[in-house]
Specification:
With 247 residues, the protein is an alpha+beta fold. It has eleven helices and nine strands. Helix content is 43%, strand content 16%. The longest helix has 15 residues, at 5-19.
Length: 247
């Protein structure tokens, strides 16, 4: 099959990223394809690295003449050529999932466009996707497919520890999986379901919080901007420009 111009660009970028001599791994659609076997078109490639390492990667690209810019100092930089784009990701847009040494250490060797790289491990890949729920994009299907295909490789205790403060988000995905695949429910450990439902029962018995808080902005800063701008809910995520545009 003929190699596309985009694929050539992505292969070049992976080689350049390796020249930066800092640890990184590939996430996003390429990692989902690797773990599930789904042959899905991806419009870009995501390079994950630690926050302290992204300047070295970006500067290497700039040194070689690539167009680069920092989209958001908190989590995202980009390398572009025409319509093709590589995202350099070193955190999460909602600031709850910084990239750490553990992400890199638990990555898997792979070959993408004939370049030997590492891809995110399945546990960290799920962690990177559970909050992506906004109008234009929802990664719940990716999470469900990863659980279906790689449930034995998921470190469920570690995933729960990642989502300790946001255990309800994990419960949502667990229930979503059980609904989608009723014949595969046992792939979710019973102890995990029992733990999450126990937390829910205890939470139900609590009094209603006094401070009006909208955690929807952990999913989407724009879709829930009205809650902060007009309806008086406390905010958990920054982004003044997004709020102004939505209002």
């Amino acid at each position: 099959m003929k190699t596309s111009i985009s694929e050539i660009f992505y292969a070049e970028c992976l080689q350049v990223a390796k020249l930066a001599n800092v640890p990184f791994c590939v996430g996003g659609g390429y990692a989902v394809n690797f773990h599930t076997g789904i042959d899905r078109y991806t419009k870009d490639i995501d390079i994950f690295c630690k926050p302290g390492d992204f300047p070295g990667i970006l500067n290497k690209f700039a040194e070689l003449g690539y167009s680069t810019h920092v989209e958001d100092e908190r989590w995202l930089a980009k390398i572009k050529r025409c319509d093709d784009c590589v995202d350099v990701i070193f955190g999460a847009s909602n600031a709850v999932a910084p990239i750490t040494d553990d992400w890199i250490r638990r990555a898997h060797p792979a070959k993408i466009h004939d370049v030997e790289v590492n891809v995110l491990g399945v546990t960290e890949l799920i962690w990177s996707k559970v909050f992506i729920q906004y109008r234009e994009r929802y990664d719940g299907a990716d999470v469900a497919h990863l659980v279906l295909k790689k449930w034995e490789e998921i470190d469920w205790e570690r995933l729960l520890s990642y989502l300790e403060q946001y255990w309800e988000v994990l419960l949502i995905h667990v229930l979503n999986f059980r609904f989608i695949y009723p014949s595969e429910r046992e792939k979710i450990p019973r102890w995990l379901l029992d733990e999450l439902l126990s937390r829910l029962q205890h939470q139900i018995a609590l009094p209603t919080p006094r401070i009006k808080t909208c955690r929807g902005r952990l999913y989407s800063k724009t879709d829930y901007a009205v809650d902060v701008v007009e309806w008086g809910f406390a905010d958990l995520v920054g982004g003044e420009n997004e709020r102004k545009r939505a209002s």
